[in-house]
Amino acid sequence: MSTSAFYTATVPQSLPEDGENQINEFQISDVERFFELPSCVEWIVSKNLKRVALQFPDQFLKYSSCCVDEIAAAHANCDGVIHYGDACLSRPSETIPIKYVFGRFPMNLKVLKTKFEMCKFEKDELKLLLVDSVYAHSTDEIYRVLDENGEDGSFLKSKVAESPEAEIQEETQLSLGRLVDKRFFDAENVKVLFIGSSESPFLPLWLMSHPQCQTVVHFDPQTGELQESQLV
């Protein structure tokens, strides 16, 4: 089975201070960490797999690249799939083991903190932090920066589920691959703080699925830009 190289469709026109150095350093030294190669090897060995399909984001896939293409893997006689990139985490069949690797882009927390200081959030409004999967590894640090900026505990919690079998707590609900505070689903008006690429396909999908999200504050770590938009 042929595959394509893992890539991001976003090519930033400008980068925040030290951003270009971060990208260059990432390309040289962080490949193993970005692709989680040690855990992939451990997973293959632990499952005793002999032929593993590597599914990368690709416009030629039969299904959306967020879905595991089990049919193609079966046609290639694979006994396992490693799925790279964002994933909707829809529950696949039980016929083949699957590992998800979301990727790990660097997050400049200093730039993030500076931008947050410029953004005013109302204490009495419902707010949800939504993080694109390639920055999910920085979610706890992003919450910490929010707390330091006076938003201590004021954001509804959400995080990327690591697998379809992720444990769902009583106070959370799974939606589009995210474990989200249940209070979000009953709300009529929510402001979303989205951390991710300006061209991320996940944000419009989320907004179409959850019409209660009427305002979006969007921070793009690759460009360092922060924008707020009113949807209704």
TrEMBL record:
GO biological process: protein histidyl modification to diphthamide
Record Gene3D superfamilies: Diphthamide synthesis DPH1/DPH2 domain 1 (3.40.50.11840)
A Pfam family that the UniProt record links to this protein: Diphthamide_syn
InterPro entries, per database record: DPH1/DPH2, DPH1/DPH2_1
One MF term in the entry's GO annotations: 2-(3-amino-3-carboxypropyl)histidine synthase activity
Residue ranges of the TM segments: none
Protein name, as recorded: Uncharacterized protein
Biological source species: Diploscapter pachys
Lineage, broadest ranks: Eukaryota, Metazoa, Ecdysozoa, Nematoda, Chromadorea
